[in-house]
């Protein structure tokens, strides 16, 4: 696929999406925003893809909204229907809004955070399933310093990841934190040296692609993202229903077979 503001690369079963406006620290424009959603949705639909990596070109992951566009952004744009459409009716509408559509993708999304992740860049990382940070990465909510508020569900998401006290700190002060502090808060899964970032992300993507059932990953991702809306009883009921279907799946048969036969798995996702 060809895009104006990002690169979309498929290698074996891994789709790598690279935000490609390095001269602007990969700040989001409306074009990039539309292209990013298109790329994530395309990877989600592609049966040959089993994992998605998101990263940035140059020294930044994503520095937030491009200031030239933010300055003239019409207030009503935030609720424009084009940004809020669902694309998969089997996924909660909560996760198909303007920047929360990553959870609706049936493939795991890995954010490889190579540099600054601020504002909307931080939001994209939070909605990913894995966050691997370079030791050069820095993080900031930035909204309070722009006279804005906690946008796009970050007030719901951030406390669930790093706790209420840390979320309050980052949102109200808008202070920058480095990768070490982000790791201590639980904001990222791991921190690696800059030269190992993409290799580490690809190693994780390769593990998700080769070693585990894509059907299991798809179902468990849905369970994890829906659990905050459920009671324990509802979660158990959903799990019981899914368990019956998994026991009848081809991937379950293969999961037993490759273990008994002591060979690499050949999961199909069915």
TrEMBL record:
Q: Which CDD domains match?
A: crotonase-like
Query: What Pfam families has UniProt attached to this entry?
Result: ECH_1
Q: Which GO terms describe its biological process?
A: fatty acid beta-oxidation
**Alphabetical list of InterPro entries matching this protein:** ClpP/crotonase-like_dom_sf, Enoyl-CoA_hydra/iso
**Any GO MF annotation of the entry:** catalytic activity
Protein name in UniProt: Enoyl-CoA hydratase
């Amino acid at each position: 696929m060809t895009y104006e503001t990002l690169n979309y690369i498929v290698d074996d079963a891994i789709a790598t999406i690279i935000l490609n406006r390095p001269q602007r620290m990969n700040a989001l424009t409306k074009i990039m925003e539309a292209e990013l959603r298109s790329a994530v949705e395309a990877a989600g639909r592609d049966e040959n893809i089993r994992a998605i990596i998101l990263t940035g070109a140059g020294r930044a992951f994503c520095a937030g909204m491009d200031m030239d566009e933010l300055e003239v952004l019409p207030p009503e744009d935030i609720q424009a229907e084009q940004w809020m459409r669902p694309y998969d009716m089997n996924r909660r509408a909560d996760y198909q809004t303007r920047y929360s559509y990553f959870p609706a993708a049936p493939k795991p999304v890995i954010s490889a955070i190579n540099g600054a992740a601020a504002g909307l860049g931080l939001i994209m990382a939070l909605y990913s399933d894995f966050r691997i940070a370079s030791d050069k990465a820095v993080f900031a909510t930035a909204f309070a310093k722009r006279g804005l508020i906690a946008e796009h569900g970050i007030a719901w998401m951030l406390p669930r990841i790093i706790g209420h006290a840390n979320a309050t700190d980052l949102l109200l002060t808008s202070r920058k934190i480095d990768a070490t502090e982000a790791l201590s808060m639980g904001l990222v899964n791991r921190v690696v040296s800059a030269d190992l970032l993409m290799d580490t992300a690809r190693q994780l993507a390769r593990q998700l692609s080769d070693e585990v059932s894509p059907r299991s990953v798809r179902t468990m991702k849905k369970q994890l993202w829906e659990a905050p809306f459920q009671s324990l009883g509802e979660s158990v009921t959903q799990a019981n229903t899914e368990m019956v279907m998994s026991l009848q799946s081809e991937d379950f048969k293969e999961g037993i077979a490759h273990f008994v036969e002591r060979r690499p798995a050949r999961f199909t996702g069915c």
